Amino acid sequence: MTNPIQNYLSKAFRWQRGRQGTGYDKMLLLTASWPIPFDSYLIRYPEGSAIPPHVDQVKSGRHFRLNIILKSPKSGGEFICKDPLFATSRIKLFRPDVSEHSVTQVVDGSRYVFSLGWVLGKNTKT
């Protein structure tokens, strides 16, 4: 069994391909499983990357994610969310486990996002 600290150190502060397989990269910054399970990433969307509409399933609890746009591309790369909890041009708070979300194709330039996610309590849709 892998030690959680060794697992973290093997992934932290290294660019990895995003799980959607659509050209974005993510860098794990910090994560913990206690007292509130959370993760934080720096996400890089180079020109041509996008994320199709999807919902992120969790085994239990309510998943929340706060995305802060650090750098917007010159064109494209718009975050689309069906039911955000809070949204401004640079700050997006949403429930990725219940709200369909996506990112349009980055057409010109690149996009960088700080993303903080956490899971609370039992799995409910409210």
Give short descriptive properties of this protein.
single chain, 126 residues, mainly beta, Jelly Rolls, seven-stranded antiparallel β-sheet, three-stranded antiparallel β-sheet, 1 helix, 12 strands, Oxoglu/Fe-dep_dioxygenase_dom
Description:
This protein is mainly beta. The protein has one domain (4-120): Jelly Rolls (Sandwich). It is 6% helix and 48% strand. It is built from 1 helix and 12 strands; from the N terminus they run αββββββββββββ. It has one helix at residues 4-11; strands spanning 15-17, 25-32, 38-45, 51-54, 62-71, 75-76, 79-81, 86-87, 91-94, 101-103, 106-108, 111-120. A 7-stranded antiparallel beta sheet has the order 1-2-3-12-5-9-8, with no helix packed on it. It has a 3-stranded antiparallel beta sheet with strand order 4-10-7, with no helix packed on it. A hairpin with a 3-residue loop joins strand 8 (86-87) and strand 9 (91-94). It starts with a helix and ends in a 6-residue tail after the last strand.
How would you classify the helix and strand content by structural class?
mainly beta
Number of strands: 12
Q: What topology, given as strand order, has the largest sheet?
A: 1-2-3-12-5-9-8
Largest sheet: 7 strands, antiparallel
Determine the fraction of residues in helical runs and give it as a percent range: under 10%
The residue ranges in which pLDDT falls below 50 over 5 or more consecutive positions are: none
Superfamily at the CATH H level?
Jelly Rolls
Order of helices and strands: HEEEEEEEEEEEE
Based on CA inertia axes, which overall geometry fits?
Answer: globular
CATH architecture: Sandwich
Q: How large a portion of the residues is in β-strands, by DSSP E? A: over 45%
What is the end-to-end distance? 36 Å
**Remind me, CATH topology?**
Jelly Rolls
Mean pLDDT: 92
Helical element count? 1
CATH class: Mainly Beta
Radius of gyration: 15 Å
Protein name: 2OG-Fe(II) oxygenase
Organism: Undibacterium baiyunense
InterPro entries: Oxoglu/Fe-dep_dioxygenase_dom (IPR005123)
